[in-house]
Fold Diacylglycerol kinase (ATP).
Amino acid sequence: MGTSDPARVTLLVNPAAGHGVAHLMAPRIARRVAAALPDSQLRVVVSTSPADARALAQEAVEKGEYPREAGRRPDVLCVVGGDGTASVGFNACAGSSTQLAVIPVGTGNDFVRGVGAPRRPDHAVAALIAGHTRRIDLLVARGALAGDRHEKRVGSVVSTGYDAEVNLRVNDSAFDLGKLSYAWAVFSQARRFHPRHYAIRLDSGPVREVEAMIVAVGNAGYIGGGIRICPQADPTDGLLDVTLVRPVGLRTLVRLFPQLYSGNFTRIDEAETYRVRSVHLDGDWPCATADGETLGPAALDLGVDPGCVEIIVASAPRKAAGSGR
């Protein structure tokens, strides 16, 4: 696209993100964007609840729907918050002409890590001003989901086993110590966790019954502030990455903990990895999580929506055809 300013930039702020850091940063972000893009129509909105955030995001996207014009940058929805706020953003922008920017101020920031967007707030603001983008896929989850929903797009990973229970334990904790909270939960949950029974179908293959500690399905493969649960995940390949870990002992789990961040844990004999277009999951696991939040109980049908979001990144992609620019 050309160098003209976008018609609209909507800055959607989750005031609770980062223990209030998002709310404090918002005025400075707005001033910097307004100074760098003086002809843009900058609007700052502050959400009061998750439902309000979804409504504000959808309103911003609906106002930005128009045919692409040469020399005119599309509208931008810029969300300021953590992975949950990013989820609000890409669920609203999916399939639209509105670009998504994420200013990461959450605990994990796994979505931006996985899709190649800036991981520091100041770098993310600079990227928004520069306007380089890439198109990414999103995972589509269908089932009886939390919040009486039946479909939701996921940016990072759907977790269903030990990994999901660790996530839920962190969410229920009275203290938020960032990565330390996840490390603590990994060890404390291991003492009480027992393998779950799964019925799994990959693509159009047969249903497989298996006992497993982890069944994770990833679009971009990070959870827990940098754990590479699906280490080969690529959010631009039109595929889902599946990591399945059969039962292992507590000592093995403790030994493997450092390898969770490198992704090398998938090399053990009990681990299996697959690359597929669809996954059906059912079993006795209590609840799945996605993008750091509760997704819903079994059963789930998971697919992929290729290239459905244009996201702001730090620099122009090497392959221009993949950027949508």
About this structure: Residues 319-325 have pLDDT under 50 and may be disordered. The two ends are 6 Å apart (CA to CA).
